[in-house]
Amino acid sequence: MKSRSHMLGTGLSLGFRTAIVVAGLVGGYLLFEFGRLQADYNIVDAIAEKQALYDEIAGLEDQIVTLKQEIALLETHREIEREAYQVVEANLTDLERKIQEQSDAIAFYRGILSPKDGGRGLKVQDLKLTEGKDDRHYNVRLVLVQVMQHDRSVKGRVDFSLDGALNGVATTYKLEQLLPEDGSSSWPFAFRYFQDFDRELVLPEGFKPEKINVEVISSTKSISSVKQSFDWLAGSS
To answer: What is the spatial distance between Cα 141 and Cα 214, in angstroms, rounded to a whole number?
Structure first.
């Protein structure tokens, strides 16, 4: 009987202790929740706030994608406009070049048929110098015309020389002294309206050219020879 009472008392004591522990845990949780409620914070609000932040992030990511697409589209438009501008500019430059070429051609033929000075016979229409690929190398373009006298061809030869200074001393070089190794000093001509020539010159070391002398010597009767001098002005090729 005593043993049964002891066991009953022990069971009650264990249950009581368990109840106390459970009550303590529940009380602690309630106190924790009360504290969070006092701080105006609870699990529901935290979840809602977290979801709102996720939604905002998703919205911003969508905006980023949209802005990237707009940037790509604008860059594509800009590239198309740039290429179109380059095409227009190239076409305009080509058109201007063609117009200039035609204007030069018209002026050239007008100079043959009806020169401003009213002269007749042989004439040096143009002489142009350009720099060559190698040092001291130059290209000479000479255009000869027969003005207002086209009933027959004219023949003859060109005599070419350079005046300048060699190491400070006045010097004149003839054509044969200015040619590359494979160049020919022979410079004949034969034409009815005009003829152009391209010759290569190699200047001696230390020589500074100043003036070009061109003598067009006619071997055709009744057509006079002509001699002209030009300042040395060499442009880039």
So the answer is: 12
